Each structure stands twice: as C-alpha cells, then as structure tokens.
Amino acid sequence: MFSTSYVAIKIGLEDIDPFLFEAAIIAIGALIAFIYTLYRKTFTMRIFRHWEVWAASAIGLVSISLQFVGLTTTTASKGALIIGSTVIFVAPLAALLFREKFTGAKAFGILIGVFGLITLTTQWSPEAFSSGEFAGDLLLLGSAATGAIVWALTRKGLRKLRYDQWMLSLHAIYPIPIILISYLFGDIENVSWNALPAVVYLGIFCTSIPAMLWAKGLGAISLTVSATIILSESVFGTVLGRLILGDELGMIGVIGAIMVFAAIYVVSRGEDPRKTES
To answer: What's the pTM value of the predicted model, to 2 decimals?
Structure first.
C-alpha cells in the first residue's frame, strides 16, 4: 500500500498545492483511524498526554512535508528509493536506543540494501549526480532521516499505547499545522478537482490502514528488521513508477531491486526472535 503512494502523489501534485494535498490526505486517514478506534472501543483522549505523541508529530510533520515537496521536483521511482534509505538511519538508532544487537548478518544485509538502492537510484551514471532533480533528492533524503526518528518514537510509544491509538494520535495532529503552512507559504489557489481521486485513494489506502498494519507488526519484530523489510516499498514504488509514469529502470535497476530483496532476506535471517524488543 505504501509503495503505491509515490505514483499517486506525483499525479496529484499536478493539480494541487503539496501542503494542502498533504493535509487533505492525512485528514482522511485520521477519520479512518478514529472510526476504527471507536469500533474497537479503544478511543480515549488520554492518548494525547504522552510526550512521544507530540515529539513524533512534530518530527513527522517535517518528514512528510519534505517528502511531498521533494516529489514536486524528482520522479516517483527515485522518491520510493530514497525514502527506502530510512533503514540506514534506523539501524544505528535501534542499536543506540533499544540495544538491538547489531550482528554481522544485519550489517551485511544493510550493506547489500544500500548498494542496491544506490544502483537503483543512480544506475551508476555520473549524470545522475548533476541532474536538476538533485534538490528534490536531498529533500527526500531529509525525509528519510527524520522518518527514522519517528520510527524510533513509534517503538517507544507502542509501549504505552495500542497501535491504533498511536496512529490516530499522529494523524489527528498533523492536518492543522499543515493547513497553516499551506496558507502561509503554499499556493492554496492551485487546486483542481482533478486531484480528488488521488486525495481519496491516498487517504484511504496509503495512510492509516497501512500505518496501523506496520505499527502492529512492529511489536513482533525488531526496529532494524522492520525498516529493512520496508525496503521492498522502494522496489515496488520503482516498478510502479516505471509502469505508470514511464520512469526509467533498465537492467541495472532490476539488479538493484534483486539486491534489495536479498538484503531483506539476509537481515531478517540475522534476527534473533528471542531478543526482539516487545
């Protein structure tokens, strides 16, 4: 579900300001999470009393905004690949904050994954580093780095809240400051009804639903393995970008995708389930 977001965002950005686009999508996600917590009878205002919620919301706001703005100047495929580099930042955070054992298998798997991402992103062509997309790429890299902090805070937050409560708290807080940013710095007049299908699709299928699935799964595996598995999002996002938007991939890109999947297998095999943080 996450992987399809890059293509949908790229399409929607043609008809709406990125900040307003972002706010509308997350508002739909918040509504879905709210309805789900009411159904599960887990809704309570006490979820907003935890500092992890507000810290993750502040940093997540930066991460999401960098992603949406970055995608205005770079391709959907490259966006998926760069965001996939979150694992590079997650691994040291997991070892530092949660004392997850950084085994040789994990290190080797991450190395393969990083090498695969570089292969997918640059195609090993010097021209890739001098293209006009470089500024957008840097913004997406910033999104990946700040996103890793949100992952770590999510792990902490899940010790106090259920996965659905956690995601509701984040999605409920995000829209208000994003709308303010859109009003102050965005182009709120740049809106077309053509963006509505993308807003609805992203709001339903690429926010709360996959986020809650991810948060629930995070309780059963380590932070590093979770981040490495999410590397598959990069591969699927790249393939979809090629099929739908015509983004370039090529044989070298296919090799890079295979390397990413190999990294997922190696790092997952290197995990000791008895030492997984609960």
So the answer is: 0.79
